[in-house]
Design brief:
Number of helices: 10
CATH superfamily of the largest domain: Spore Coat Polysaccharide Biosynthesis Protein SpsA, Chain A
GO molecular function: glycosyltransferase activity
GO biological process, one term: lipopolysaccharide biosynthetic process
Radius of gyration: 25 Å
Transmembrane segments: 200-221, 227-249, 261-282
Structural class: alpha/beta
Order of helices and strands: EHEHEHEHEHEHHEHHHE
Helix content: 40-55%
Number of domains: 2
CATH class of the largest domain: Alpha Beta
InterPro entries: Glyco_trans_2-like (IPR001173), Glycosyltransferase_2 (IPR050256), Nucleotide-diphossugar_trans (IPR029044)
Strand order of the largest sheet: 7-5-6-4-1-2-3-8
Strand content: 15-25%
Domain Glycosyltransferase 2-like: 3-159
CATH topology of the largest domain: Spore Coat Polysaccharide Biosynthesis Protein SpsA, Chain A
CATH architecture of the largest domain: Alpha-Beta Complex
Largest sheet: 8 strands, mixed
Distance between the termini: 15 Å
């Protein structure tokens, strides 16, 4: 079975047409399918429009929890062996779905869409190229469009994916870190006809912090002491050397050291080192104590019009 998961937020004018296009494509594929819309707390009439649709499942959040949580809810609901995600703004073309299935049937666990001829504002395209270039450089994952919402997932990968914050932007990096096989396929991209883009300048800063999170998660998600421990030991050792030196000066030359700024620096470095090491140790204990991640969303209503 194929599961199609569409997270939406304020897309009341787009969801009816997207639903019509999806049905046209999926029925012609002659495979069992399900369509799952996740309304991420829309403030317009999106949920009202979704309830009118046939052959769909609808999950409605109590408020806006973000795209990562909408995807998580959709993955949890999905029952297909192959899961397709696309945005609800009609810019992703459902006719491209067979491309994703072909790549997954060839062995890929994650297939990323690549909007070769992207029809967005020049500023959005420019920022996206910079972000993708930086991410490719630091993660080593050779994907042209990390944040493309049009993706194909195997059930195994989707069910094991843990997202929070805005980590949906870096799903390929998370997949590569866990050892899943990644592929890429060019897709047709269309202009937005209705509604407003959710991409803003603020998201550049938000994306930067999420990028730092990904870099940390790649190496230290299950061993935070390996990150904080060296920092703590370095700081502690530097402080210890300073205090040892001042002690030697005091004993050997009988020079007063109480008013020296170097004494304060040495004491500070020792305490900071102890704090860093303790933070890493506590992090290790938390990781081993909490194996499962809790839900970070609240479902207001479920609708099943099958």
């Amino acid at each position: 079975m194929i599961s199609v998961v569409i997270p939406v937020y304020n897309e009341e004018k787009n969801v009816p047409e997207l639903h019509r296009e999806l049905l046209g494509v999926l029925k012609n594929m002659h495979q069992e399918f399900e369509i799952i819309f996740v309304d991420d707390g829309s403030k317009d009439g999106t949920f009202t429009e979704l309830k009118k649709l046939k052959s769909v499942k609808v999950i409605s959040f109590l408020r806006n929890f973000g795209k990562s949580q909408a995807l998580m809810a959709g993955f949890e609901e999905a029952g297909g062996e192959r899961i397709i995600t696309l945005d609800g703004d009609l810019q992703d073309d459902p006719k491209e779905i067979p491309r994703f299935l072909e790549s997954m049937n060839a062995g890929a666990d994650l297939v990323c869409g690549w909007k070769v001829n992207r029809l967005d504002d020049p500023s959005k395209i420019f920022l996206s190229k910079i972000a993708n270039g930086v991410t490719r450089f630091f993660t080593g994952v050779e994907i042209h469009d990390m944040n493309c919402g049009f993706k194909g997932y195997t059930k195994e990968f989707a069910k094991n994916l843990k997202l929070h914050g805005d980590l949906h932007r870096y799903i390929p990096a998370l997949a590569a870190y866990d050892g899943f096989r990644i592929a890429e396929t060019p897709v047709n991209h269309r202009r937005r006809l209705h509604g407003n883009s959710k991409y803003g300048f603020f998201r550049v800063f938000s994306g930067f912090f999420d990028f730092l999170t990904v870099m940390f998660l790649r190496k230290y998600i299950d061993r935070p002491l390996h990150f904080f421990g060296p920092l703590g030991l370095t700081s502690f050792f530097a402080g210890f050397v300073i205090l040892f030196y001042l002690t030697w000066v005091k004993l050997a030359y009988h020079i007063a050291i109480g008013s020296r700024p170097l004494l304060s620096l040495g004491v500070l470095l020792v305490f900071v080192g102890i704090q860093f090491f303790s933070l890493g140790l506590i992090g290790d204990l938390v990781v081993r104590k909490n194996g499962n991640e809790r839900r970070n969303y609240i479902i207001r209503e479920r609708v099943s019009n099958l």
